[in-house]
Amino acid sequence: MRAFADNQSGVHATEDVVVASFRFASGVYGSGTWCFASDENDEYVEVTGSRGALRFSVTRALPIRITSSGRTRETPIADPPHVQQPLIQTIVDELNGDGRCPSSGGSALRTARVLDAIVGGYRGASNT
């Protein structure tokens, strides 16, 4: 993984621009760019493969866009009434012995380590 973080707007002390590139254990490469000081809300995830691309939003109820062979198809989606409810239900089910939650302390720690590595350079520099 390689990453950069910086405060470009100067509005707050925290990082407001983050760029990361990474390789998964499977060998697949990925990259991400986050700008928290933009005047536009253009948030999306795009997965590009050898046969096309998939694009969707994580925070907004936008259509899922699939592009393949030069054709684009959009599938409208709506947010569930309580967007966090499915994950919360898996936690409740596991606590009651009725299922397994996909999130764990181990997965949370792994995520925290990745996030710390991404912004570590900026935070280390800003703490001196």
Short description:
By secondary structure, this protein is α+β, with helices and mostly antiparallel strands. 26% of the residues lie in helices and 30% in strands.
How is this structure best described in words?
The chain is of the alpha+beta class. The protein has a domain at 41-79. 26% of the residues lie in helices and 30% in strands. A 4-stranded antiparallel sheet has the order 4-5-6-7, with no helix packed on it. Strand 2 (17-23) and strand 3 form a beta hairpin. The radius of gyration is 18 Å and the shape is globular. The chain starts with a strand and ends with a helix. The mean pLDDT is 91.
Helices, by number, come to 2
Amino-to-carboxy terminus distance:
24 Å
Tell me the number of strands. Answer: 7
What structural category arises from helix and sheet content? alpha+beta
Kindly provide the radius of gyration, computed on alpha-carbon positions and rounded to a whole number of angstroms.
18 Å
Anisotropy-based shape: globular
Strand order of the largest sheet: 4-5-6-7
DSSP strand (E) fraction? Answer: 25-35%
Q: List the helices and strands in order.
A: EEEEEEEHH
Give the helix level as a range of percent. 25-40%
Major sheet details:
4 strands, antiparallel
The chain-level mean pLDDT equals: 91
Low-confidence stretches: none
